Structure formats: C-alpha cells, structure tokens
C-alpha cells in the first residue's frame, strides 16, 4: 500500500496513498512539463466534458470514488511514471502491476473504463488512459468539495507493466524515509505533506494501523502513546485483536482516516492530526517531526481554498513524473490491455 491514499479505496485511500513511494530507477521526473493544458481542444474537444460527466455519475452512487481515483493516480505515477501502467491486467506470460500486493485493492477501475468508452466513441484512438486518470481525479476532487485546477494533458500510455516494479512504502514509514522517496521524484517536503492531505477523503484497512493499537514498536499489548484515547477506543472497536491472526486479508474492515467529513475534500485531516487523531503512523508523525509540523499547522490554519489550491499545484507537479509523450508508448484502445 502506498502512503498516499494508504488505502485510498472505498472509503479508503492513499495512498496512499499513497502515497509516498520508493520508485524504480526507470521513471524520470520532468523539471519542465512536456504536457499542455487543453491538449485535446482540437483533436477531441468533448473529452474533458465526457470524463467529468462519467465521474459525476459514479460519485452520485459511490462517494468513495474520490479516494479511489487519488490512489490509482498516486500508485501509477510513483512506480514508473504517470502512464496508466497500473491499469494493465496480467497475462499468461506477464504479471502486471495490477497484481502486485499494494494494488490489489485499487478502486475505481470501472469508472476509468466507462470514461474511456465514452471518449473512444467520440474520438477513437485519441485520448490516453493516463490522461483520463489525471482528469477524472481532478474532477472527483472538485465534486467532493475541492477547488478546481487546470490539468496539463498529452500523456501517452505505457506498453510495459511489471508487478516486480511496484515498491511502495507503507504507512509505517518514517517521515524522513517518505520525504526521501518524494525528493527522488522531484517533490519536496511541502508537496509531500500537502499530498498526504488526500487522506481527508480516505480510509485504511485495519492491518495498516493494528500495530499502533496492540503491538507498538514490537511490544505485545502496547498502544501508541501518541494516539488519542478516544480514537484508540473507536479503532479497537472496529478492529478487535481477536480478528487478527497474522495479517488482515486485503478485503477486511476499512475505517475512515478523516473521522468527521470523510467524503469532503477539506482541511479536517490536518486539524485532527493536531489533536492526536491520526489513524496512520506516518500521518501522526507529521505533527512530531520538526520539518513537517509547521506545514501541518499552516495547512490547518489556512482556509479550505488555500489547501485545495496547494493540493492542485502539488498533484499537477506529481502528474509530470515519468510521462510518455510524442511517439512514446501508445494510446490504448482498452485501458486494461496493451494494443
């Protein structure tokens, strides 16, 4: 599971998701974006509208789609670049990223397929799956209450997807380790803290905070002393010790990371961290580390508009990682398989 969106799935997240990932050496970080806003203005002028319409329809029946899309985007960009390689299904001769453990609970693939079908009908072979991910993610953030931001497009889709290339750190990573992973992708410490704000619409499976409840720092029965007692009580109710054997299966209980407005894109995540209500260890440690604590305070103190604007800038920056453009890669006709 990636740090951003931890388990940006259902009511879940990133990642985590994630999101903060150790990347493979193959993906480069663009200093100057080779992408442009309005890339499809002539070649497929209805593309962004069709994607937005599909995203709204999905949100109407499943509010967890915002977290799901954020996690898909993070898990895509942080492996070999923003190229939709994590949408490709495995074949008899290749185990793809989608079957790597951190991606087993990705949520929202059906929306990507629906949006892709709509744009293929309007403009066959023009709009990439990678751009659909980026645009649908923006739309879902806005629908959930965030501010809009311009999404540069022009990405092409990868023809390579390897499960072995997926190496995402979990929420138990230290702030320093996570920051190093971000720096390796051209994202600074402020970008990291801002992108972790995706957890405001996210959730996490019990296995990713179980040790904080029952086995902190490897001590049987010890609870993380930094966790507010009221939060610990509610988490223990949702994730009792008896339900854990060695590790939770991927489909087990999910709890909201934002305990107040879990489907609204706002600043409550940062406020809760300041009151020791961080569900994930990496989240709570943001308030304890001197390099990140001032950023958390600033985002909590600022307006929701300020956070949304900052988030838009950071996710656009992330969306430039390792992009394929021009004649690189391809435009997949079906997002789950190479042409």
UniProtKB/TrEMBL annotation:
Cofactor: Ca(2+); heme b
E.C. designation(s): 1.11.1.7
Keyword Chaperone: no
Domain Plant heme peroxidase family profile: 34-339
Catalytic activity as recorded in UniProt: 2 a phenolic donor + H2O2 = 2 a phenolic radical donor + 2 H2O
Co-factor: note: Binds 2 calcium ions per subunit. Binds 1 heme b (iron(II)-protoporphyrin IX) group per subunit.
PROSITE patterns assigned to the protein according to its UniProt record, in alphabetical order: PEROXIDASE_1, PEROXIDASE_2, PEROXIDASE_4
Superkingdom to which the source organism belongs: Eukaryota
Signal sequence residues: 1-26
Protein localization: Secreted
Main location: secreted
PANTHER family: PEROXIDASE, PTHR31517
Primary role: Removal of H(2)O(2), oxidation of toxic reductants, biosynthesis and degradation of lignin, suberization, auxin catabolism, response to environmental stresses such as wounding, pathogen attack and oxidative stress. These functions might be dependent on each isozyme/isoform in each plant tissue.
Sequence similarity: Belongs to the peroxidase family. Ascorbate peroxidase subfamily.
Name of the protein in its database record: Peroxidase
Species: Sphagnum jensenii
């Amino acid at each position: 599971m990636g740090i951003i969106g931890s388990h940006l799935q259902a009511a879940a997240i990133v990642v985590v998701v994630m999101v903060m990932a150790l990347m493979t050496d193959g993906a480069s970080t663009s200093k100057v974006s080779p992408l442009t806003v309005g890339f499809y203005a002539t070649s497929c002028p209805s593309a962004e509208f069709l994607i937005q319409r599909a995203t709204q329809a999905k949100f109407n029946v499943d509010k967890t789609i915002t977290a799901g899309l954020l996690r898909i985007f993070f898990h895509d960009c942080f492996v070999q670049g923003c190229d939709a390689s994590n949408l490709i299904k495995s074949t008899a001769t290749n185990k793809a990223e989608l079957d790597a453990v951190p991606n087993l609970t990705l949520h929202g693939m059906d929306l990507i397929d629906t949006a892709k079908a709509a744009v293929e009908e309007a403009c066959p072979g023009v709009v990439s799956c990678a751009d659909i991910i980026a645009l649908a993610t923006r739309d879902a953030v806005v629908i959930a209450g965030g501010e809009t931001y311009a999404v540069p497009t022009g990405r092409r889709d990868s023809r390579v997807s390897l499960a072995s290339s997926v190496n995402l750190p979990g929420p138990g990573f230290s702030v320093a380790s996570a920051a190093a992973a971000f720096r390796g992708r051209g994202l600074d410490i402020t970008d990291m803290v801002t992108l972790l704000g995706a957890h405001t619409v996210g959730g996490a499976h019990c296995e990713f905070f179980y040790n904080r409840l029952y086995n902190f720092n490897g001590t049987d029965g010890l609870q993380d002393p930094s966790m507010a007692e009221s939060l610990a009580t509610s988490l223990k109710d949702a994730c009792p010790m008896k339900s854990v054997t060695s590790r939770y299966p991927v489909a087990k209980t999910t709890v909201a990371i934002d305990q107040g407005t879990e489907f609204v894109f706002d600043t409550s995540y940062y406020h809760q961290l300041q009151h020791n209500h961080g569900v994930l260890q990496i989240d709570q440690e943001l308030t304890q580390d001197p390099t990140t604590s001032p950023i958390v305070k600033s985002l909590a103190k600022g307006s929701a508009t300020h956070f949304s604007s900052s988030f838009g800038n950071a996710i656009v920056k992330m969306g430039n990682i390792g992009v394929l453009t021009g004649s690189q890669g391809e435009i997949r006709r079906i997002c789950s398989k190479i042409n």
